Amino acid sequence: MTDLSAQDATFEPGLGDYFALLKPRVMSLVVFTALVGLVVAPVPVHPFVAFVAILCIAVGGGASGALNMWWDADIDARMRRTASRPIPAGRVQPGEALALGLALSGFSVVLLGLASNFWAAGALAFTIFFYAVVYTMWLKRSTPQNIVIGGAAGAFPPLVGWMVATGGMALEPWLMVALVFMWTPPHFWALALFVRSDYGNAGVPMLTETHGRPATRKHILAYTILLAPVAIGLGFTSIGGPLYLAAALILNARFLLGAVRIARRDDAAAEADGYAAEKGFFKQSLYYLFLHFGALLAEAALAPVGLGGW
Q1: What is the spatial distance between Cα 112 and Cα 129, in angstroms, rounded to a whole number?
Q2: Among residues 84, 40, 32, 41, which one has the least CA distance to residue 61?
Q3: CB 26, CB 68: distance < 8 Å
Q4: Are residues 152 and 178 in contact, defined by beta-carbon separation less than 8 angstroms?
Q5: DSSP secondary structure string, the chain?
Q6: Out of 19, 131, 241, 267, which could bridge 64 as a Cys pair, Cβ 3.0 to 4.6 Å?
Q7: What pLDDT score was predicted for residue 8?
Q8: How far apart are CA 291 and CA 25, in angstroms?
Q9: Considering Cα of 15, then 79, then 70, then 205, what sign does the dihedral take?
């Protein structure tokens, strides 16, 4: 094999490259929160219907990721964190990502409507549209509130799961949506504090670039304070209980403490210890959401034996 043919072979897309377009790590959060929304709903769902529904939600979330990577290929190429993604790395053509995203979007929405109900399918279609169009194509490049408003796209899956089971809405799924929605800004702003100039180099108006890093630290604290009552309040609804409430109190106390530490620091102190507090807060945010939804799932699992819920 010549050097040229070896280079060509290197850039032939594989199954892993197409799977990477679906943002599997983000998809895993979408799947988990949607599953919790479905399981904690007051209406039982046949296991096969539940499996198909969660599969459709996962595929729809992946479709959003593919459309996002297609539109943001120019940004991704200028950021160290994303330069190795399939499109900027040259392993997948933009047109292929667009076709995959559109095909999976249509497939997931139609199949979810046929398997469960078209209210849930409509909610999934809106979620895909919000992430791919409202957030990716409009907000991300136009306002420092991109993460705040765009966070709604990642917050809708538990509502979709609830609607699969019930065909309607209630306070509980909206509080789950609010939990994810309010968690999103401090999660991403903490990341923006220690990835330094990546967003600025790519021309993304992240809060750190438009309002400065001290303001970002204050915003992280403000949103964490607003997040706590939402998370704790969910414990007093029909899907909460003592286990969830205890978990929420502990997790939010720790999260608030981390946000206070970030707000009290400046960049000189952060650089001195390698952004330890910011990186620690970001890592904590990764399991913050998982443990809240895991506690809700545990309450639902314990309810049939009289140990879960109020």
Answers
A1: 16
A2: 32
A3: no
A4: no
A5: --HHHHHHHHTS--HHHHHHTT-HHHHHHHHHHHHHHHHSSSS---HHHHHHHHHHHHHHHHHHHHHHHHHTHHHHHT-TTTTTSTTTTTSS-HHHHHHHHHHHHHHHHHHHHHHT-HHHHHHHHHHHHIIIIIIIIIITTT-TTHHHHHHHHHHSHHHHHHHHHHSS--HHHHHHHHHHHHHHHHHHHHHHHHSTTHHHHHT---HHHHT-HHHHHHHHHHHHHHHHHHHHHGGGSTT--HHHHHHHHHHHHHHHHHHHHHHH--HHHHHHTTSHHHHHHHHHHHHHHHHHHHHHHHHHHHGGGT-S--
A6: 131
A7: 43
A8: 16
A9: positive
Name residues of the chain where pLDDT drops below 70.
1-12, 196-198
Which one, of 145, 144, 146, 123, lies nearest residue 136 by Cα?
A: 146
| Residue found under tokens 């401090």 | 186
Calpha distance 274→90 (Å, rounded):
33
For residues 116 and 122, give the distance between their C-alpha atoms in angstroms, rounded to a whole number: 11
Q: Are 57 and 31 in contact (CB under 8 A)?
A: yes
* Token digits of residue 205: 């108006």
Q: Which one, of 34, 276, 21, 2, lies nearest residue 156 by Cα? A: 34
pTM of the full structure = 0.89
Give the per-residue pLDDT at 197: 65
CA distances from 180 to 73, 96, 100, 112, 136 (A): 26, 31, 27, 23, 18
Tokens of 134: 């409202």
Place of tokens 């539940």: 50
